[in-house]
Structures are given as structure tokens and as C-alpha cells.
Amino acid sequence: MIEIQWGTPIALYTPHNDVAERFCTIEKARHWLRRKWPVADNTRQAALETIDSAMDCMCPVKDARIAFVVAALSAGFVPVRAS
């Protein structure tokens, strides 16, 4: 299976954990949204729909990335600042 890279990896601290997780592909973001996401809210659902659409080449990958970041911030993930 070919993975879809979405540019610079997104590094996030997971809620209630000091471990940073790196998201480099749409597939990993989709897996987390479906299996490991701490909340089921509208931003999660919108991110899943946008990622599925990007995987079907119906919207740009950048839109999926943005939707994922919005969902992550809504769920309490904290971005890791580049040093």
C-alpha cells in the first residue's frame, strides 16, 4: 500500500500524556481518528470525512491536514514547538 505523505510531520502531545506523537501520513491520522481519538465530536467527524475525501482524490491533501489539526486542537492535543 502506498502511503500519502502530507508534508512536514505534525508532532502533537497526546492528552494526559507527555509523549509526542508524529503524524506524517494521512493513513496514520485516519487510524488515530478512528481508533485512538479521545473524543467523538463534530471536528473529529469532519476530519475523518475530509481525510477520506483526500484519500479518494476528491480534495487536496492540505485540506485533510488542516481538518486533522483542527480536530486535534479541539480534542486537547498540544502541538510540539520546533526548536
Structure description:
Helix content is 47%, strand content 20%. The protein contains 3 helices and 3 strands. The chain is an alpha+beta fold and 83 residues long. It has helices at 26-36, 42-55, 61-74; strands at 5-13, 20-25, 78-79. The mean pLDDT is 91. A hairpin with a 6-residue loop joins strand 1 (5-13) and strand 2. It has a domain at 23-79. Helix 1 packs antiparallel against helix 2 and helix 2 (42-55) runs antiparallel to helix 3 (61-74). A 3-stranded antiparallel β-sheet has the order 2-1-3. The longest helix is centred in the middle third of the chain and has 14 residues, at 42-55. This is DUF982 domain-containing protein.
Tally the beta strands: 3
Encode the helix/strand succession as letters: EEHHHE
Number of helices: 3
Low-confidence stretches: none
Biggest sheet: strand arrangement = 2-1-3
| Shape annotation | globular
End-to-end separation in angstroms reads: 33 Å
Summarize the structure.
InterPro entries: DUF982. The chain is of the alpha+beta class.
